[in-house]
Each structure stands twice: as structure tokens, then as C-alpha cells.
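Hi there,

I know you've been waiting on this one. I reran it after we fixed the sequence typo, so this is the corrected version. Both the input and the resulting structure follow.
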Amino acid sequence: MRDLPPLKTLPVFLSVCHHLNFTKAAEELCITHSAVSQNIQNLESFLGKKLINRTTRHMELTAEGERYRQSIEEGMNLIVRATQREMQSDKQVYLNSIPTLALKWLIPRLPNFTTAHPDIELRLSAISLSDFDIDADNLDLAIGYGNSPDWWPDSVAKEWCQDQLLLVGRPSVLEKYQSIEEILQNETQIWVKDRYRSSDWKQWADAKNLPLGSKAKKQVFENSTQAIQAAIAGVGIFVTHNIFVTDELSSGLLKNLAEPAITIDSWYYILCRPDKVRSKNVKTVIDWLMEEVS
């Protein structure tokens, strides 16, 4: 262990790297300015190289300091994740879902899960598809979306639900027009400003062999949850994904305006961290997800 630096110097070094200011680092760590300076000197002395260039008005990392910062941050992150995992109760299962799926499908069904499995604490997060990392975010399970399980080589992927697109609107829309072409020409089209949703309208229209209506008015929203609420409110019509509006269709708040829905070559996958595959509680959550979606 003699190659290890004084371990108490590492959090100080990282704080100084973040702030590039000894005073701010001292405030963050609740130590004195001189203690910060002494820790940095001790670390530089141990390594035999300068990590930080300091003047009275300016501070910057040396090339060696920047390289060491990156390595130490990686190591610290590993320690944090390992500690978090060990602190988790065996009763807790952490599940991440696409935000709209979490809000419109998962959360309404949580009471069913709690009733059936009172001894399991299912903890939900809704990190977006492009941002979540099942390992870095310390997740047990996640719901991913794509056309191949190969998208998640570090997870055990299981097909959960094949995706379907459909055109939805208030039921009263069907009473106003004689054909779907008239609906497309006259109703405001609701779109979502999201790269994962940008092709939904065209994909649906191409499959139905229908024109989108070049003169139709468009209303753009930031996410599908907003767009669904807009359709319910009567703002317009919306091409969305079947699983997002399951409850709204069942309750009659929305109507599929052009039966049948279009099945597309994309799936929702249940992703499991490899070291959690044999966990009894994780398997219970997976089985419940499979039952609910069926």
C-alpha cells in the first residue's frame, strides 16, 4: 500500500480542481485555507511533480494535474457507486423508465405492485433514454427503447413490448369529418420536439398511405406527456405510442382515429444489470412488468 498517496489529500485536490480556488475549496470541505494548501503540497511532494500552478491572481492545473484529476475522479466515482450499492437494502429495487412511460403507464400501476408485493420497495427514476446509464446511475433495472438488444451490451436485455403508433384525438373529432383525410387536413397536428419522436408522424402516415396535409396547422410541445394532455384538452390530434395512452384510450378520454394501430420494428426492453439477474426481488419486478403489459 506504500504507493498510495495520503488519502485525505484526494478530496481536497478534487475540490481545488473544481473551484480553482483554495478559499472556495476550504469552504466546501469545512477546513481552513492553510489546510487546503498543506494537503496540496503534501500530494505534490508525494508524487514528485507539480499539479497546480498558482499565482496571486490565477490558478490552473498543469498537464500532469489534469491527467491525475481525471484518473482520481474515475476512481472516486467507482468508490461512490460501490458504497451506494452496499448501502441499498435488499428490499429496494431501482428501476428507470423513459419519462413519459413512467408518468403515463408505470406510476398509475404502482398501487397494484405495492398491494401484490408489500415487502419490495420499488424506486422509480425517469432519466431520459439518451442520458441513463444502468451502472453509473446505480440501477437494478431500466426500460430501454430501440430495435435491437445490442444497444445495451452491458445489460441483460429482455423484449418487453413491441411498439405501436396510432393517431389519437378527442372522440368528438370523428363526429366532425367524413374521412381520415379530412381530419388530417383540418385538425391541428400535435408534434413533439424530440429526436426520438421526430419521425413518428411520417412513419405512421407512410404505413397508412395517407398524406399529412401540407397546409395543416402544427402545434409543437417539448415532450409526449405535454402533447398527450394537449390532445385530451382538444388542442389537436397526435401520433403517439400505444403504451403511452393505454389508460386514456380505456377511459375514453382519447380515441384511436384510424384503426388499426401501426406495429413498428422497435421494442421496449427490460434491461437488467448482470449482477442482479439472480436477485429474487428483481426477478419479481420483471415478472410483474411482463404480466402488466400483457
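Quick highlight: Residues 152 and 271 are 8 Å apart (CA to CA).

Best,
R. S.
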